Amino acid sequence: MVDLTSFIMGIVLVLGTLGVGVVVMMYIQINRLKRKCSQLEQVEGHIFNDINRRSEELHRRIDDEIRRTDDLFTDSNRFVNRHIDEVYKVMDSRLDKLVTKLNPVTKDLLKD
């Protein structure tokens, strides 16, 4: 009976020691995983901040390009309108000269 009790106590002691060892190993692994999770959360936060910063920069650049394009369009319109006005002035002066040249001829034709 003593042998059986010693055998059972030995098995319980071995299983208890193994159980404690497993618990300690699990505790160590859980702590490692917690540290990795916190590191990953920090990396995620950095990535999120970087994405937000780049998005803001991109929107700012897009707005700047839109503003620059609008300015170019406005300047081009002014340039074209100014030159169209100049062309109209030249055409008007040429037509006036033509009319003055034709007026004596038409007066002569009307007299005859």
Q: If you compute it from the alpha carbons, what radius of gyration comes out, rounded to the nearest whole angstrom?
A: 47 Å
Quaternary class: single chain
Instruction: Give the SSE order as H and E letters.
Output: H
Shape type? rod-shaped
Major sheet summary line: none
Separation of the first and last Cα atoms:
159 Å
Coarse structural class: mainly alpha
Give the low-pLDDT segments: none
SSE layout and pairing:
Blueprint: H1 2-111
Description:
This protein has 112 residues and is mainly α. Helix content is 98%, strand content 0%. The chain is rod-shaped.
Write out key terms for the chains shown:
rod-shaped; mainly alpha; 112 residues
A few lines on this structure:
Helix content is 98%, strand content 0%. It is an all-alpha fold.
